């Protein structure tokens, strides 16, 4: 039994006017009975989870939802299942159970479950509410916040989706206890991202505390989650639909998505691809003369200490990466725009880099 | 060659603030070079059409779009193809041609093409612009205006979709020349709907001019289209996301969707199902004492003169209809809400009807 009520709960708000919503962060939060009802209107609730997370936490969540008609759906686990066929299983389940427009969906799991459940909520009967209950570090600090939902297409990641904000995000840090080390490290990649693009002090804190995070020190994890959510919430509130500053959150993602798509969304975790992608962005920034050698070394050093990959898998080949980078959502007028770094804590979105330097980064990444 | 420039063009605006857009109505409009460019920002345009409409009008539309990278996709024709598999063909085409987020989709066809293309535009890269070029009367007067997009699910019509407004609606009334009589009549069903729910004078005009419409009198058709679009634009501007008055546009649709779903989206056209559904709604309204016998007879009389069905297909059975009505999007707290009539020109949404009277309406419809 968790001592939830003795723990102080942190609340970060995503300020989006009438679509404003809270991110609750605490150990033992899934033992509280008051949080779900505050964000559910109708009587029907569908919990969508996967084969890994379901056996661990579905019962606890269903217990909190006893007062509703609570149904659940268990999908397979993995990025390769973030597709149209699995999405359709959610629609099948909702229609088979006769779920009406006043139902609520609950996403219990990592980024894949959150993105797919959110997208199903965006489309079911042209939009129903949903609640995020992220159980991986990556989902807690990034994908569950901000309303980006969607699925992959064989030709590109997150190519089909919608902006659809959740009604609330419930982060029970106790669920990290069952997260394997590799998933934890993948989440740390996105945590490091906030430091790199807009929070130099946080980067320095991470540099000093990376071992505590890898060792699952509860206070360090709670702080990293809260600070990441604060960063994400600020950016989303300023630019919900990614017309400007929000695009900087994609540091490492154009490279990373190309790696993931080229691998068929298998073998590598999203956070691992992003880690390699951030290194590639840093190297291109160095080649453009925007970062000095020491700063590049400091970035690569932290990612290495986090036991994350610094390079794309050599077997992919530069041609495949180029191909997949060309379908990125940030392509404008035929030119791939990239998020690059001016310093630790300052990113920019630009198409104004030398093509030859990008080629060199792709080549060195693959010959490593 | 059309004498487009000699025809006066009517413009109806859908007033939605920064998402405001025009509906252009004229004969020969597809011969004009000025309308598309006013509503296209990027360089890539994908025209989505079907096997019936494509051979007739794709060339003319492509000619107007010569200055862009103009691609096209031809889907099969029919409501039974408004599904996930066909939707995915649009995503495949967009990704194969490397379409970026600044592309524009053009829906050239009837309601099925408009709904699917609009939904693809809503989801592709989380939202790209699109333009409606309706070529059926039904699409011109109803489905192309207002931003409701989506696809069917085997268990219910339009169950998966999004609100996504077009940038413009281009109605070339010349395209009605190639519309077969049955499709024309199906469109007239939705025209009659506007008279029934909110425009008594228009209903009287239709009563006096139904033979002219069926005889394709150009002036009568142009007037009916413009007046229908004006009605639709007013309702959508007042209630874009169907929180209130917009729901009245669904007169006959809960019955009609159940008929369509029970038929597997084959055999009957949407407008035909709506016509029978409006008669069923009128009969239930009569049974509740809200309509008098003469008014019911007047409504049924007009629909009969329009050569549209007054009853659901007897072979379906009341149980099947009840089953499909229960998944309607307007179900709230387990109760099916219906749009019923207080008089010609005045509709209401209510769950406050006698269940036994609804059963009687379903039974009499099927024993007719």
In short, what is this structure?
The structure is a homodimer of 368-residue chains. Chain A contains twelve helices and 13 strands.
Describe the model.
2 copies of one chain form a homodimer. By secondary structure, chain A is of the alpha/beta class. The first copy, chain A, folds into 2 domains: 4-178, Rossmann fold, CATH 3.40.50.1970; 197-366, Dehydroquinate synthase-like, alpha domain (Up-down Bundle), CATH 1.20.1090.10. Helices cover 43% and strands 19% of the residues of chain A. Chain A has 12 helices and 13 strands. Chain A has helices at residues 54-64, 84-96, 111-123, 137-143, 181-198, 200-214, 218-238, 253-262, 270-287, 293-305, 318-325, 355-366, and strands at 10-14, 21-26, 44-50, 69-75, 104-109, 130-134, 148-153, 156-163, 168-172, 331-332, 335-336, 338-343, 346-350. In chain A, the strands form 4 sheets. In chain A, strands 1-2-9-6-5-3-4 form a 7-stranded mixed β-sheet, sandwiched between helices. A two-stranded antiparallel sheet of chain A has the order 7-8. In chain A, strand 12 (338-343) and strand 13 (346-350) form a beta hairpin. The first copy, chain A, is globular, with a radius of gyration of 20 Å. Chain A starts with 9 loop residues before the first strand and ends with a helix. The relative contact order of chain A is 0.11. Residues 1-5 of chain A have low confidence and may be disordered. Chain A binds chain B through residues 42-43, 84, 88, 91-92, 95-96, 98, 100-102, 122-127, 148, 150, 153, 155-156, 158-163, 241, 326-327, 329-334, and chain B through 42-43, 84, 88, 91-92, 95-96, 98, 100-102, 122-127, 148, 150, 153, 155-156, 158-163, 241, 326-327, 329-334.
